[in-house]
Amino acid sequence: MFDIKKICMIYDMEKEEKMYALKGFDLKLPDKGLIGIIGPSGSGKSTLMYCISTLKKPTEGSIVYNGRELCECSNAQREQLRRSEFGFVFQKHYLVPYMGAVDNVMVAANGKDKELRKRAEDILKELGIGEREFNKKPAKLSGGQCQRVAIARAVINDPKVIFADEPTASLDHENAYNVMKILKEHSKDRLVLVVTHDKSILKDADSVIEMWDGEISVNGEAE
Ligand SMILES: Nc1ncnc2c1ncn2[C@@H]1O[C@H](COP(=O)(O)OP(=O)(O)O)[C@@H](O)[C@H]1O
Ligand SMILES: [Mg+2]
Fold first, then answer.
1. Helices (H), 12-87
2. 3-state DSSP call for residue 62?
3. Degrees to nearest 5, angle at CA 76 with 72 and 78
4. CATH superfamily of 2-221
5. Cα 115 to ligand 2 centre (Å)
6. 28 neighbors 4 (Cβ within 8 angstroms)
7. Whose CA is nearest to atom 4 of ligand 1?
8. Over the stretch 131-164, which tens digit does the pLDDT of each residue have?
9. Which atom of ligand 1 is nearest to the CA of 214?
10. Is residue 89 within 8 Å of residue 150, measured between CB atoms?
11. Where are the domains of the chain?
12. What span, in angstroms and rounded, lies between the C-alpha atoms of 203 and 175?
């Protein structure tokens, strides 16, 4: 699904000493499965994920997604691709504080009809958010519940890829486990890419990419 070649990222191009956040490696990603990207803080995990998901443009290199060169697409085309085919989960849930759970899921929905609202409610129920929570604002939900609402928002448009950057970092162990279980479930028919510095959450990953200092140090099966 993704064919990445010689991907290179330099922040602060105008600085004399160039700092490579990504040092020019190749990477192929399949169209389904749970893939982990692990590595210490500063190793380039988020930069890689944001380049692949079109949130950032690499300094050099090529990212081909289903035959399309993403680095040559316009910003509008990249935004359209994110809207229609990608879903995002971040460490912070970024829910809208004055909206209830269902409305927060609908924010991302491509449409507003009743059927879609029903779908949002069904997804929330599947994630263990019951009717009692449907109209609750984020401040009235627990951290784990907020992250599950954020996951519902990421899947409402039935994306082909879910990008999750440290999705469990602000959760306790049990909630982290539940979030990973949900992401694993969704990876049966789409690609789910999870960035983390915590190896323990990747025990059910189909494969794990290890990063070190802007490069891939290991690319293989999960242990
Ligand atoms: N917006 C930015 N401007 C300048 N440098 C950045 C920026 N974002 C990340 N970096 C640098 O790029 C390197 C990789 O960062 P990042 O991709 O966030 O790593 P990770 O997600 O593995 O912690 C780090 O040295 C970081 O300081
Ligand atoms: Mg990061």
1. 45-52, 75-85
2. strand
3. 55
4. P-loop containing nucleotide triphosphate hydrolases (3.40.50.300)
5. 36
6. yes
7. 11
8. 999 999 999 999 999 999 999 999 999 999 999 9
9. 14
10. yes
11. 2-221
12. 15
